[in-house]
Amino acid sequence: MWSFSFWEKTWSDPAIFWVAATASITALLAWVAWKQLSSLAESSTSDFLFRLKSDFFNEQARKLVFLIEQDLLKFEDAEIPYFSIPEFNKPELKPRLQELGITESTISMYVLDDIILGPLQDAAFYLREKRITKNQAYAVFSYYICICSKSPAIQAYKEFCRKGLGKSDIYAELDWLETLMSQELAARN
Predict the structure, then answer these.
(1) Is the dihedral of CA 41, 47, 48, 49 positive or negative?
(2) Could you write out the DSSP letters of every residue in 21-69?
(3) Are 74 and 83 in contact (CB under 8 A)?
(4) What is the pLDDT of residues 28-71, one digit of tens each?
C-alpha cells in the first residue's frame, strides 16, 4: 500500500503532489484552529468564574458571611419573616459590627437570599450544567457553602421557605451542592 512507487509517484506527479500538500496543510490548519478554540473555551470558563466570584464577593456579602460564620443570626418566623442579630448590643461585639458597617439588628430574608443563597444556588446550577467544574466550585465557594450548611438560622430559613410555599425542592440545588462539597472536603482531608 505504501510502497516506494507510491511515494515516487506522489512527489513526481504535480497533480498528486498538490492534492497531498493541500490535504496536509488543511489538516495542520484544522489542528491549529482546534488548539486555539480549546484555549478560548478555557479562557471563557475562567472569565465566567471570575465574574461569578466578583459578583459574590462584595461588601454586603462580607457582612453577611461574618454574621453567618460567627453564628450571630437567628431566623425569626414572624408575620414578616426576617433575620435578627440577638447579640447586637453585646459590648464585645459592637467594635466588630461597627468595623464592618453593620448598623441594624435585623436583616431582611430577601437580602440574605439575594446576596448569599441566590449566588450559591446559581453556582450549583452552573456546576450541574457543566459551566464550571467541581474543582472550581470547591476552590471558590466550598467554605461559604459549608458555613451556610452549618448555620441553624439558614437551615431554619430554608425549612420556612419549603413549608411556606409547599415546595420541598426549594434550595434543592444548594442542598445538592452542600452534600457534594462536604464529600469533596472529606476526600481531600
Answers:
(1) positive
(2) HHHHHHHHHHHHHHHHHHHHHHHHHHHHHHHHHHHHSSHHHHHHHHHHH
(3) yes
(4) 778 777 777 666 555 576 777 778 777 788 889 999 999 999 99
> Are the beta carbons of 83 and 107 closer than 8 angstroms?
yes
Q: In the chain, where does DSSP find H-type helix?
A: 4-12, 14-56, 59-69, 94-100, 109-112, 118-128, 134-150, 152-165, 172-188
Residue 132, class by beta-carbon neighbours within 10 Å (0-12 exposed, 13-18 middle, 19+ buried)? buried
Residues with Cβ < 8 Å from 125, sequence gap 6 or more? 173
C-alpha span between 68 and 153 (Å, rounded): 8
Residue type, 46: S
Residue 26's CB is within 10 A of a number of other CB atoms, namely: 10
For the whole model, what pTM was predicted? 0.72
Burial of 115 (0-12, 13-18, 19+ CB in 10 A): buried
- Main-chain dihedrals φ then ψ at residue 43, nearest 5 degrees: -65, -40
Distance CA 20, CA 7 (A): 11
Q: What is the dihedral of CA 89, 90, 94, 96, to 10 degrees?
A: -130
CA–CA separation, 153 and 82 (whole Å): 10
Residue 82: strand, helix, or coil: strand
Residues of the chain with confidence (pLDDT) below 50? none
